Fold ABC-2 type transport system ATP-binding protein.
Amino acid sequence: MSRQNDPHPDHVRNFASDERKGRVLGHDSMKERAEIKQRIGYMSQRFSLYPELTVEENLRYSARIYGVDNSKYRLNELICQFSLQDAAKQCVARSRNPAAGCFRFLNCAHASAVVSDEPTNVDPLTRRLFWEQLYKLTEPGMTILVNTHYMDEAERCDQIALMNKGRMVAKGTVDELKQRYAAHAGTARPTLKDIFVHVISHEGDK
């Protein structure tokens, strides 16, 4: 199988170490990487399932890798959840199902937390379906970290961290950030974009 279609790229498999320490899902990020890996899902910007396999085959493959219990039951549950009943037997590359853009969710079936790297570069219908499914995934307690340059999408998240040149320059809920920077962003009702522009333009003042 092509390396470029690997749904678990190196930068997700291997948690890069630095001088700082932390905990992920209760595990030490330096000492318990294997345990963290088993519980982390990754949703990439590009299509990351094996296109030559069917939806079912991709699901079974992931279930075997991660040792998902009751994989047959979970398989049927996921196919129904993402409205893929008609596409389940088709190769991913040939599927014309309107929900096909949501196939990337299938990589996250095993996860307790998901890292989502700019995942919504899709048509408007699929984008709406994508966010509906994201909300469903969080209902049982899954944590989802979304990396995006679209501020309107960031506003959908419960907690926001604004980054500039690899540094976190502000964090909080949308309401908290708007209240904090309303007097400084040049408007009484600042958008998240207004706040971001203000924060990074004043980075040199600190």
User: Anything to note?
Assistant: Residues 160-206 form one domain. DSSP finds eight helices and seven strands in the chain.
